[in-house]
Design a protein that fits this description.
Blueprint lengths: L1 E6 L3 H13 L4 E7 L10 E3 L7 E3 L5 E3 L1 H6 L1 H9 L4 E2 L4 E2 L8 E4 L5 H11 L2 E4 L3 E7 L2 E6 L5 E3 L1 E4 L3 H5 L5 H4 L2 H9 L1 E2 L2 E7 L12 E3 L6 E6 H4 L10 E6 L1 H6 L5 H15 L8 E7 L4 E3 L7 E5 L3 E5 L8 H15 L4
Parallel strand pairs: 1-2, 1-13, 2-9, 7-16, 13-22
Antiparallel strand pairs: 3-4, 5-8, 6-8, 10-11, 11-12, 14-20, 15-18, 15-19, 16-17, 17-18, 21-22
Helix pairs in contact: 1-4, 1-11
Amino acid sequence: MARVLIVGAGLTGSLCAALLRREASSPLRLTVWDKAGDSGGRMTTASSPHNPESTVDLGAQYITCTPHYAKIHQSFYDELLAGGILKPLTSPIDGMVIKEGDCNFVAPHGVSSISKHYLKQSGADICFRQRVTQINLRNNKWEVSRETGSSEQFDIIVLTMPAPQILQLQGDIANLISECQRQQLESVSYSSRYALGLFYEAGTKIDVPWAGRYITSNPCIRFISIDNKKRNIESSEIGPSLVVHTTVPFGVTHLERSTEDVQELIFQQLENILPGLPQPVATKCQKWRHSQVTNAAANSLGQMTLHLQPFLVCGGDGFTQSNFDGCITSALCVLEALKNHI
């Protein structure tokens, strides 16, 4: 039975795992490793330490589907809507640009529930807090080393982490990347920002007429969402949760500062926008060094094959575009590249 390692439990990685399980002609042993403590990647959802039912989306806020992708990815949308993983976004988002024919969706259980849905389908062995450090060739297999734990051998590897993290890997992989591929990977660029999640006590009122709001006049804050309101969930037992996304210039300027310092700066600016906001019972500050792809790898067609025997392929939004449909496109391209090997 071929052993397949997928590095990254974000949307592309989890979808690759589910598609491989569905499409493989012979049995596979699927393993997913992620350096974070939970699945979702940049579609992550954080829980309040006081109440796991109180959650906030720290990455992607909602999914916008264009008429083009509504057609070619219809089966993916239909499945997620039928399972209650997605539902139409009906809450007011102040300042949102709506183009004719676009549909917007929200994840009622948090945006990370999409990755969790695909990982569950895949039946993969999932291990968190596993940071891959080296990939070496050993007897026509891949030997993969990690920060903690012993190295393991695999027949196939799918890398779905951001391009700069692929370039940081040590071992034989560094020599297997061609000069042309290296240039393509180095050309992938990302915006950087912070997200601050705030959790409140049950019964707290945040009295604003919107569920989300784009801010255009603040040097620090770009977007605010009252997450339970965004998802149309009201509960007397669960307190409201709020997320603040910073501007990219703010994120870049303060990228190397401590999250404690950055959190304080965000709080100061939030007070200007929402004066008198109650004190939260808990907070979660997330640094997104690799937030959204601003420049994807040229001519990569959704994936980049680094080695054929044994097979090693890269995927993710760095090879397409930084949204839900970009991740689906990449996962389908990875599957196509793998077809002759599974």
